[in-house]
Give the backbone structure.
Amino acid sequence: MRDVIIIGGGIMGLLTARELRKTGRSVTIIEKGRPGAGTTWASAGIISAHGTSGSADIAGLPGLRLRTASDEDWTQLAEAIAEESGTDIEYRLNGVLLIALDEAEAESIQEKARAREWGEAEWMPPEVLRSEEPCLSDDLAGALQVMGGNLEVRKLGPALEIACRRLGVEIITGCAVEEILSVDAKVTGVRTDAGVHEATAVFICAGIGSRSVPGAVPRPPITPQRGQMIAMDARALGLERVVMTVNDPYLVPRADGRVLLGATREFAGEDPRLTVGGLSWLLSEGTRIAPDIAACAIEETWSGFRPTSSDYLPLIGQGALDGLYFCTGHGPSGIGPAPASVRLATALYLGDAPPIDPAPYDPMRFA
Ligand SMILES: Cc1cc2nc3c(=O)[nH]c(=O)nc-3n(C[C@H](O)[C@H](O)[C@H](O)COP(=O)(O)OP(=O)(O)OC[C@H]3O[C@@H](n4cnc5c(N)ncnc54)[C@H](O)[C@@H]3O)c2cc1C
């Protein structure tokens, strides 16, 4: 009998396992594929109080709170992961620009910056923006620089897997959980396609799979939102900061010289194929904000599915069964807010004081 079984080995499951194992709990992750190879792998990896474009306004202040509480953690966490795994996840605090396409956007961005408390923020008028990031369009009306940066998500999953295994977390891969088992409203374990595993607590961290695990109460109302992405060889551009627009797209300079251009937001089932409309929108909007990318070679394209809940806020905390916990449904903003989300979920399980008010994320709002 384990203390905790975690369903899903994405960023939420791996960080939760690491945190709980450090308190001495026996922890098993059951992952149907490879750890870190789900939505976490597909992400742009932007860490910013502003969130990814589009998600910022929808999730409102509770979304912002998870991101700002996590911002403080990422520097320490990236160092700890490097130490525990021997892997540099290329976390860089290179700054995030929220650019204004016209005067109206410039005004509303500055207005929101004052009201939303995005931490330290500095307005760059067009002439300063041009000298700081020469590859951006001359037509922009300025940009707000906020704290933040990005990390290499493709290194994050494998690094966390190594760190977890070294700590003594059991990780079972290629094994799907088919049902959460309970007796008298108390969790007893899970049934998988390879047998039953017993535990006194189960965490649902299964991303878009969280909506379809029988036995979960409540059933998370999560819908996959597809995001199509393009990676370019953009060493010649010299882009330094993450560049975001109010309604997408965004540009993310990686440490290896690639620049990511993302991402579409589509509710189109679970079809991972890229579309003509999706890619052409990304390319036309991308060249509008940074005309020089037209000369860049495309290195890779892919898509991923954001685990988006019906109110755009994650489910963090206990469900309707004794021993059933959720840390899932982060939708478009799940890498940046992960440290605070996991600290909150594990504090609620351990009976510690929650680091932030848990009410907005309570899974029971869907009961
Ligand atoms: C294109 C794109 C760009 C994004 N950009 C950003 C960004 O810049 N910044 C940001 O903060 N967020 C971003 N996100 C969102 C972020 O990536 C996600 O919110 C986050 O990765 C979700 O992590 P997770 O651990 O909940 O899910 P996942 O990473 O999907 O992990 C869940 C795991 O559960 C496993 N699983 C599912 N069902 C079962 C089952 N029944 N049994 C066993 N295992 C199961 C899956 O195989 C998977 O490995 C982006 C997302 C996309 C798609």
